[in-house]
Amino acid sequence: MKRISIDEIVGGEILAKDLYLTNGTVLMSEGSVLRPGYVERLRYLRFEYVYIVDTPTASSVDCITEKVIQENCRDTLRSTIEKYSYRVDADLEDIVNVANNIMEEVLTQEEVLYNISRVRDKSESAYLHSINVSALAVYIGARMHMPERRLKNMAMGALLHDIGLIYVPFDLNGILLEECDEAMQKEIRKHVIYGYSAVEKEEWLPITAKDIIVNHHERIDGSGYPFKLTADKLSLESKIVAICDEFDSQVYGNLVKRRKVHETMDYLISQANVKFDFKVTQIFISSVAVYPLGTIVKTNEGETGIVIRQNHSLPTRPVIRILSNDNNNEEVIGKEKDLLVNHTTFIVDTIEAEK
Q1: Which residue would you say has higher pLDDT here, 245 or 311?
Q2: Which residues lie closer than 8 Å to 242 by C-beta, 6 or more apart?
Q3: pTM for this entry
Q4: What would the CATH number be for the domain defined by 63-287?
Q5: Could you tell me which of 15, 40, 45, 1 has the C-alpha nearest to residue 334?
Q6: Ranges of each domain in the chain
Q7: What is the DSSP letter of 78?
Q8: Beta bridge partners of 188
Q9: CA angle (33, 41, 324) in 5-degree steps
Q10: Could you give the residue ranges of the DSSP H alpha helices within the chain?
Q11: Of the candidates 22, 80, 89, 140, which lies 20 to 30 Å from 102 by C-alpha distance?
Q12: Is-contact 163 292, C-beta < 8 A?
């Protein structure tokens, strides 16, 4: 075994020693698989290092994290779009390779929940947003039994869905759309037209992908933009990307106020069959971890816990390990609590880890 700092965790490592809370109870036992999402949570709990197995060990995986996909695709997407925006020896067709990488990663793990990390480098947020929207879209499309050709076309459209933002004539860093004046909001919303115009003559890019670029902000009730199209005028691919874009934007605060994952899920549920396709929303909610692994949660019974496993049949009811409780009951500290079994226990909030 070897000791590594918390910052060195990349995901998939096997614990070689138990992790103990300050009261001596076990937080994670030897043999547990570490996830990228655990890093901030372990730091929050004041852990500085862990001991891991030094040799590769096969282990079961119950989730796919966005972090793995991002690391495989980020550099190619960034360099391709940046070169294309400046017309410097650009070959936008490299997007096909990124789409293929996403397809390979997602389609090999179809029976797992999608687990987000909540950790994103602000300097690369635009590219990571596009990668995550693409991966989520493929993930949801696969569960709707879309053929691989359609999934790939959707992946490319999702990767390029915000390409028009590079043509908006001002810095969007830190901007919230709702706080902009009317003229600025109008200009930002033009990004869908700018994006479509930028790729319109790219003959290799499928029509489906171009449709996604211009229509991902349309809503089924006609309240979206740029054309206020209703459900019957929108492709399934555009409907899928629309909800994936909304989810990722809210969770990471991309031009909108940042929300917690469960708050974003509540919003999407409230808009099912209003702004978002009902079936797509249903599948999305059942496929993405409402409380990602490593999330610190508060329950209605005054407990603070950390999410350690998911219940695939009901993602809103994960398994948690109790870290503390309002009654100072030492006997329950460190114990697991399966919310699928404990019907009277509910998660009422999540606690953000300190950065």
Answers
A1: 245
A2: 215, 216, 217, 218, 219, 224, 276
A3: 0.81
A4: 1.10.3210.10
A5: 45
A6: 2-60+291-351, 63-287
A7: H
A8: none
A9: 100
A10: 38-44, 66-86, 95-107, 125-143, 148-159, 182-189, 191-199, 207-215, 236-252, 261-270, 278-287
A11: 89
A12: no
